[in-house]
Amino acid sequence: METTLTYLECTRCNQMYDYNVPQFTCVNCGGILFARYNLDRAAKVLSPAKLGNRGASLWRYFEILPIERESNIVTLGELETPVYRFNYFPAEIGVRDLYVKDESVLPTGSFKSRGMTVAVSKAKEFDISIAAAPSAGNAGGALGAYAARAGIRSVIVMPRDTPKLNVYESFLYSSNVQLIDGLINDAGLIIKQGVERHGWYDLSTMKEPCRVEGKKIMGYEIAGQFNWNLPDVIVYPTGGGTGLIGMWKAFEEMEQMGWISEKRPKMVAVQTSGCAPVVNAFQQGSKECKLFENAATFASGLRVPKPFADYLILQVIYESNGIAISVDDDTIRKTMESAARLEGVILCPEGAAALAAVKPLFENKFINENESVLVFNTGSGLKYIEVLQNIVSGKIDNKLT
Ligand SMILES: *Cc1c(COP(=O)(O)O)cnc(C)c1O
Ligand SMILES: [Zn+2]
Fold it and tell me: What is the pLDDT of residue 399?
C-alpha cells in the first residue's frame, strides 16, 4: 500500500508545507495544518467495494493516511466500531431513528486511540525519542500506550483532578506523568515549555496534523455503515473538536473521490453548562472562542476552556447548518442511568451529554421526527469510577442497611 499524501496545508492562510519533516502549526499565522492527498489517485486504488476486502482495521485506509511505510504502523488493533440503534430511549422522546456509534470498544477504552495510532506511527517514522501531550482524560492513556508500543518515551501532563483511572493508566504506560493544579490549558503550557527547551515532539490536540487524520476515519466508517448515505444529524460531544473537524474533512475527501453526494449531516457540538466555550461563541455568531472561566464538569473530555481549533469547530457548525448546545452535569448523570437501564449501555459522561442533547434539539425542532440521528459514545463509561460511584452510592447504601 502507498499513501497518496502530497503536502500539508495551513487551514488559515493556505501556506503549503513539506511532510517529510515534522511540522506542527503554521509558522506564518499559527494556523492548524491539514494533510492533503492526491484523491484522484487514491480513488483509483481505494473504493467502497475494495474496502470490503480489507478487514475492519482503521489502517485499511492507508492510502489516505499520512504514513509512508507500513512498517512504521504502531497499532493495538483499531477496529471499526459498531453502530447500533437505541430503541427505548428515543421512543420516550419521539425520535424515530436514533443510532449510537460506540467508540468504547477501541484500544485504551476511548476514541483517542484513533488519533494516537496515526500520530505515534508518524513519530516513529520521524525516529522521535520523546513525545508529549497534555490530557484532561483519555488522551494521556492513549499516548502512553502507543508510545510504549513504539518504544518512544512519553510525557503526559494532567490536571490533578483528572478521573482516577486516566491518571492510573497514564502512570502504568509512561514513566513521565506530571499532575498539576490547573486545567488542560495550564498543562498545555508545560508541554509547550518542554517542546521549546527539550525538543519534545508535540502531540497536543490539533497542534500536529496526524491525530485528526486518525479521527477522520470515524467519518469514513459512518459513511460505510449508512450505505454511503450519511445520517441527517450527527451529535458529537466536543472538547478539542478533533472528531468533528476530522469527520467534516472525511466527508469532503469522500465527495471528491465520488463515494458520497454533496449532502451533509447537520453537525451538533455538545458541551456542558460548566464548560461551554463553543456554545457561547456559537450563540454570539462568533468565529472564535473566548476562554471559559472556571471550567468545571465531570465530563472530563469536555473540560477544554478554549479549544485550540475553535475556528475550525465553529466553521464546521456554521457550514453544516448545525448548532452548539450544552447540557448540565445532573442531566448527564440521569442520562447515564437511563441508557444503562433502557439500552444496556454504560455511556461515558461525554456520550451521555450528546445523547441528552437530542431531547431539547427535538423539542425546539432542530431535529425533525423523520430525520436519522447519530450520537457518539466516545469512550467507555467504565473508566469514570468516581461518576459511577456517585450515581450508585445512594442505592447501595439503601440495600446494605
Ligand atoms: C477527548 C474526548 C472527547 C472530546 O473529543 P474531541 O474530538 O477532542 O472534541 C469526548 N469524549 C471523550 C470520552 C474524550 O476522551
Ligand atoms: Zn498559516
Answer: 63
